[in-house]
Structures are given as C-alpha cells and as structure tokens.
Write a structure and sequence with these properties.
Length: about 425
C-alpha cells in the first residue's frame, strides 16, 4: 500500500514539474475550465437567488390561500356604465356570504376594501393605501408584528377608529419618534395607531402581494362607514367615479390538497354571479408549482450552457496533451525501453490532465465565488452559492480532464518504443 502511495506521489510531482516547464501554455489550457466552472457556479448562484426570492414570496402568501382580486373590465365591457359616468365593477359583500355558505372546504374568509387617501400624523403627510379588513387578515397574510398589536375582534365589533401601519409608512410619517398611541388623520377622520407590522418589500416584476409599503389597516366596518363604496378619481382634467364594494377576498382552504379544487369551485361560482369578468382568482400554490417548474427548466438550460463551456475546456486539454505526447515521444520511448509498462505511461499522462483540470476547477471556483459577490454588491441582485454547485462543478471539471485525457494517454502508451527512440 505504502509503495503505491509513494509512487503516486512521485507521479504527481513529475506531472506538476512537466506542466511547469510550459507555464503559459498550461495556464492558457486551464482557462477554458476556469471560465467554464466559474460560469456554472455564477449562473447557478444568480438563478438560485432569483428563484428562492420568488418562491419565498409566494410561500409567504400562504400555500393554503386563494386570493380573489377586483379587476376593472375592458372598455367594451363597461361601455354602458361609462355613459352614466359611474363604473361599477369588482367584488361584492354578497360574494363573501355566498362563498362562506356554499363552499365547505373554506376555513376562513377575509374581505378587503382599499382606499387611496392622504394620511397626516403631526406635521407630516403622505399618501396611504387604506386597507379595511378584519383580524384574520394578519394571520392569512403573515407579517411580523414590530410594535403594539393588530386589529382584533373587539375593534371590529365596536367599530373603533384604530389603525395599524406598515413599518415603511410609520418611519415616513414619524421618522425616529414613537408612533404607537399617536392620532393619525385619514381624510376627515382620526384613528389611534395601535400597531406596526413589517411590510412586504416591493420587487420589480415580482408577484403582486396583498400589502404594499404604505398601508394603513383599519376595521372593514369603519372603512365602509367612513368612505362608502363610491370613489372619485381625477386624472388629466377628467373625473372618474367608480363603485367597488370590495377590492379583494382572501380565503384559506382546509388543506393544501383541496386548494386547486376549491379554486375551481370559486371560479365557477363567481362566473354565475358576475356577468362580466371583473375579478381574477390567484392561487399561490399553483404559482409556487409553476415557479418550481420554471426553476427546473432554468437550471437545465444553465447546465447545458455550462456543459458547452466545459466541453470547450476539455477540447483544450486534449489538444495540449496531444501536443505534449508529440513533444515527449523520445522520452516515452526511453521509459518504455527501460521497462515502463503501458499502464504506467497512461497513468502519468492522466495524472497530468487531472492536475490541469483540478487546478482549473479550483481557480474556477474562486472566480465563481467572486462573480456572484460582485453582482450582489454592484447590482443588488440576490445570489445564493450552494455547496452542491461547488462540488458538482469541481467534479465535472475533473471528469472532463479524465475523459479528454484518456485518448492522448492511450496514444502515448501505444507508441512503438523503437520508433519513439528514433524520433527527433
């Protein structure tokens, strides 16, 4: 055992020595693998970071939740309403009652009304998205509580003028001052700020979430009483009036297995009671499955691109090893003449290719770690370098070296010793 290890160690030393005789050539040969391995790790890191962020955002919406959102119909569908200067669309209070009474798989149902209003707290003012909802909203759409408390059943039953702000909105309104217990003016009404929750950060191109950066949550009954169902918008000198009872309904299904069947049942019922397509049903679980499938396709494409890069690197190794065989023909003849066996010649050349591929793989890993770090620092994109991508890349690099080194090694071993000794 020890002689074999000692011989292997000597062969590795000899292989490194031979490669160092042509430093620049060896470095240029490794570059194909360096960039191939580096690109594999970098592409997987960027893809993994983006997909994880999207998947995590979808998971936070709730795998058992179904979100029904109001959607303004096209001009053709609302032509009759335009003449009366009042556009009527969206979800209804009766939709909530029907869903609760007719679909037994629903565990909880949360109605949501949204109003755009200016909020004033002390001397500061900003535009807020006022969300009228109930206590279950904060359980279905999980958002960490930073300070105070959220709306409860007592606030709903008593129609109390209380509000919960998102962290971003609270900081904009009060900067470094305490907000809990302060009086917030929304429109012509006053609300006591009872809590602050962490809001979902808005990412460009990301899935639409039920909350935004500047939300103020109040009891639904209070929102209906203070703001009604008719909203007026002024755009480009014109006035648009809309009647929307509810902007969103979030339902929780009893189990994950029943989500897609329940979503189909909700879609059928909504079609029965809505003559126009003024709603959209979103299923985070379906989006999660779609995102995971997209991730698999994305990884396959990246793997194919990386495979081409490594193939180019492997061809470079084969090329340089064939050139090395030609240069060292006389050396091979001498070794064969003094008793070296074919397998020893093969082993020597394979060791050199493995040293090249391992060196290229290690340098490629360094490059692959550097690129995602630079992307995160400069572009602000999330990147995730996983241990399996490093191991996989190095393993592929070594495999490429062995596979593309076999032919030159076999060619060297099969040289006729007499012809090799005559070679000039």
């Amino acid at each position: 055992m020890l002689p074999s290890l000692s011989r292997l160690f000597r062969d590795i030393q000899l292989g490194i020595k031979n490669l160092l005789l042509h430093k620049l050539r060896s470095l240029l040969t490794m570059l194909g693998l360096v960039f191939g391995v580096g690109s594999v790790i970098a592409m997987l890191a960027v893809g993994e970071g983006a997909s994880r962020e999207a998947l995590e955002q979808i998971r936070r919406l709730g795998s058992r939740n179904i979100i029904i959102s109001a959607q303004k119909p096209s001009d053709e569908q609302t032509a009759t309403n335009v003449r009366s200067f009042l556009s009527i669309y969206g979800l209804l209070y009766s939709d909530v009652t029907r869903l609760a009474e007719t679909i037994p798989t629903l565990e909880r149902i949360v109605p949501v009304k949204v109003i755009q209003k200016e909020g004033r707290l002390g001397k500061r003012a900003m535009d807020l998205r006022v969300v009228g909802t109930n206590a279950d909203w904060f359980e279905l759409v999980s958002r960490p509580l930073i300070a105070g408390r959220v709306i409860n059943q007592s606030d709903q039953a008593g129609r109390k003028n209380v509000a919960v702000l998102t962290e971003y909105g609270a900081r904009r309104l009060m900067a470094t001052e305490a907000v809990i217990g302060e009086t917030l003016r929304i429109g012509s009404n006053y609300y006591e700020v009872i809590g602050i929750v962490q809001n979902e950060s808005a990412q460009e191109g990301a899935i639409q979430t039920p909350d935004q950066q500047t939300d103020a949550y109040i009891p639904l009954a209070v929102a209906r009483e203070h703001f009604g169902d008719v909203f007026t918008q002024r755009k480009s000198g014109s006035q648009i009036r809309e009647r929307v009872e509810l902007h969103q309904i979030i339902v929780e299904v009893e189990s994950t297995e029943l989500v897609e069947l329940t979503a189909a049942a909700i879609e059928r019922q909504m079609q029965l009671y809505h003559s126009k397509k003024d709603y959209v049903v979103s299923v985070p679980l379906a989006l999660l499955k779609q995102a995971e499938a997209t991730k698999r396709i994305f990884n396959t494409v990246l793997g194919a691109i990386a495979g081409i890069s490594l193939l180019v690197g492997g061809i470079g190794i084969m090329n340089i090893m064939l050139a090395s065989v030609t240069e060292r023909t006389r050396e091979i003849g001498i070794r064969r003449a003094i008793g070296a066996k074919q397998r020893q010649i093969i082993a020597q050349f394979l060791i050199e290719t493995v040293v090249l591929s391992v060196s290229g793989g290690v340098l490629g890993i360094g490059l692959g770690l550097l690129i995602p770090w630079l992307i995160s620092k400069i572009a602000g994109m999330p990147t995730v370098v996983s241990a399996h991508s490093l191991i996989l890349s190095l393993g592929i690099s070594v495999s490429v070296g062995v596979i593309f080194g076999i032919y030159p090694a076999m060619r060297a071993a099969k040289l006729d010793p007499i012809d090799a000794l005559r070679h000039e």
